[in-house]
Amino acid sequence: MKTFYAHALSFILVLSFLNTNAQESTNDTHLSTSVTPAYSSKLLRNTYAGFCFMVRRASDNAEAWVEFDEATKSVTANSKVIIVTPGSSKYFPGTIMSFSTFYKATSCYVSIWYDQSGNGPDAVQHDKALQTRIVNAGIIDELALASGERHSLESKKQPRGNTTTAAHQGVR
To answer: Is the distance from CB of 85 to CB of 115 less than 8 angstroms?
Structure first.
């Protein structure tokens, strides 16, 4: 049943991404296209080369970018993460490891969900109490992803950097 919800959510997100509205401008010579942001734990476009989201580890407030697993094109325990903010952990910014190594037996929360459309804003939640849980005590919480459980995520344009500049760009 969890898999059904995951596929259903991904399908809905893809449909909303593909929904564009062309409107004539006042002088009838230009067309305007509106693009809806696209958020998913699955890769929605093969041309998207960014991260899925940034997560915060509850045990020490370390934050990391989470990549899509190359084999499944979705976020799994095998996905690579890159440490952005070490919190009180022993890691340094730029440290790369598997997602399962990062979360171990603790919980993780989404602080930024990156827009895969390339045109819309990223969904950001800085308030720790309102962040969506993605890992619960060392187990990926697929139901939260599949059911669309969301707490207030604000849409904002966030700077996207590489691993060497992330900590200096104010990405949170």
So the answer is: no
Q: Are 23 and 13 within 8 A, CB to CB?
A: no
Domain contains 21: yes
pLDDT at 166 over 70: no
CA distance 31 to 23: 6
Between CA 29 and CA 31 the distance in angstroms is 7
> Does 168 map to a domain?
no
The structural domain count of the chain equals: 1
Please state the length of the chain: 172
Cα separation, 46 vs 22, whole angstroms: 24
Q: Is residue 91 part of a domain?
A: yes
**Cβ(166)–Cβ(84) below 8 Å:** yes
**DSSP output for 94-161:** T-EEEHHHHHTTS-EEEEEE--SSSSSPEEE---GGGPEEEEETTEE-HHHHHHT----PEEE-----
The domain of 86 spans 2-158
* 8-52 per-position pLDDT tens digit: 334 333 333 333 333 333 344 455 466 688 889 999 999 999 999
- pTM of the prediction? 0.66
Continuous H helices in 19-161? 99-103, 142-147
